[in-house]
Amino acid sequence: xxxxxxxxxxxxxxxxxxxxxxxxxxxxxxxxxxxxxxxxxxxxxxxxxxxxxxxxxxxxxxxxxxxxxxxxxxxxxxxxxxxxxxxxxxxxxxxxxxxxxxxxxxxxxxxxxxxxxxxxxxxxxxxxxxxxxxxxxxxxxxxxxxxxxxxxxxxxxxxxxxxxxxxxxxxxxxxxxxxxxxxxxxxxxxxxxxxxxxxxxxxxxxxxxxxxxxxxxxxxxxxxxxxxxxxxxxxxxxxx
Length: 240
Prior knowledge:
Elements: H1 2-22, H2 27-40, H3 44-54, H4 62-76, H5 80-90, H6 93-97, H7 99-120, H8 124-134, H9 142-152, H10 164-167, H11 172-189, H12 197-214, H13 230-239
Helix pairs in contact: 2-3, 4-5, 4-11, 7-8, 7-9, 7-11
Domain CTLH: 75-121
Function: Involved in the proteasome-dependent degradation of fructose-1,6-bisphosphatase.
Protein name: CTLH domain-containing protein
């Protein structure tokens, strides 16, 4: 019985992989996806180099890509004020029109000030910033107020005794999330897509697999995202 199930599973996988090979993307399509990712995510030097190597035309003006990269680097590095100033130089309307994004950046700036306070023991700069910049904005939105209250709670506990919800505010992931939101806002303002095409394709693939399984379409028990090289695939097939 076990042998029969194993044989059936192997047959299903082989049939599926044959269909995959029949619709395999061309190298030029893959190169276009890579260039799109490098451009949309803000890697101008890598995008320019890859476009030359792959003989492809850049999708966006190099200056714009570099400006987005500079802004993201500021935020990734915790220099939120410089990031806000650079964003306003690029397009002052973005933060004027997106109150939620502006508040999230200001809150992140407060988090960085609190991080500095923990190092030097002076909470004055953080309290002053919260009072002047976040205090007037918080009452306009219940979520703003909740986020501000949670952030201010960082001042009440030592960094090594924070609850997970508060500790998450000091995690570098908050910077990455903010930088990603800013990048998407800039792209949207430029009337382009908000994210790289490959991100959309990954989401579409996950949706397609889920839909197929719900309809009991014959598929292998598990499907890889498809990023293995040929050697990896040979090893995986040999283990089935």
